[in-house]
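Reviewer comment 2.1 asked that we show a complete input and output for one of the modelled complexes. We chose the adenosine-5'-diphosphate case, as it is the one discussed in the main text.
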Amino acid sequence: MAREPILGNNRDSDGGDEDRDLRPQRMSEMIGQREVFERLKIAIDAAEIRGEALGHVLFDGPPGLGKTTFAMCIPRELGVSIQLTSGPVLKAPKDLVPYLTNAEERSILFIDEIHRLPRIVEEYLYTAMEDFRIDLVLGEGVNARTHNLWLKPYTLVGATTRAGMLSGPLRDRFQIREHLGFYSVDELTEIIRRSAKKLDVDIYNDAAVEIATRSRDTPRIANNRLRWVRDYATSRADGRITLEIARAALQMAGIDALGLAPLDRKYLDTIIRVFGGGPAGLEAIAHTMNASPDTIADEVEPYLLRIELVVRSPRGRVVTSKGFQHLQMREPKADGPRLF
Ligand code: ADP
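Response of the prediction step:
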């Protein structure tokens, strides 16, 4: 069961380095997100023609939808270099300074999870983004002097799963803001087909559709499921992915027809069995499941809420009729409507 963590849920860390080999290298290779692509293309073309730095770009949206992929493609389109860092690593302005001073003209500085920057670093970015200028304090105590340092015009690209956590002034300094939405089954099928080609594995069309349907509308999850099915096909069959093989592999991993993993079903089952279908508070549910409330809130609930197996009410989480049906459990009969 060493495979389990990869297949689990919509974890941000699911892919890690493994994302690299399947990541599209150019924006034109990316599937879906056409409007985002078109708008970015125009901004990139215009920056190229004018020989200017591209305006700062902010991508937001749930994990695994292509924020990093877009960010990594931009410098290739512009023929410039990129530096990569992330919000939690930049604890103080001094951690950010080397990136800013090293930024070449028109190059990209990518900050992943930018909502996790401490406020003091966020504020330090204001002039660095708007005027390409920073204040450097050199020396200590009474000898300390503030020096004004001009930066080369560069482009900051930020990615966040929580745009609402960014301060208003920081958000407003991004000239280009793009929200990435979920993918259709057709788009995910195409991503799976292309990934299979990169992984050098034969896949039947109906098998690609099957994996796409169970991938929670998310490319990273689709690629992870594909990797597992490919391993299964190699170990248990002749390496080709047929519909039958895909179904057997996903079933073995506990991925059901809607793409729910065992933890998702345990969550629904807990609310139904222990709390009569709800309403139940997050903490109570998590403790009963012996899981952390953060894990449940970040990795389990978003998808279940989105596909309406659960709803959130002021009094807690409630499993919907669709949720009961999915687990093939009977909804308790109530005299009136259930109180949410
Ligand atoms: P995020 O930064 O939003 O968490 P990533 O950009 O890391 O997501 O995407 C995760 C993986 O999904 C990538 O490695 C890539 O293989 C795949 N992917 C994401 N978006 C697309 C897309 N539009 N077309 C093809 N593959 C994609």
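The pocket of adenosine-5'-diphosphate is lined by residues 15, 19, 22-24, 30-33, 63-69, 159, 191, 219-220, 223 (CB under 6 Å). We note this here for comparison with the apo prediction described in Section 3.2.
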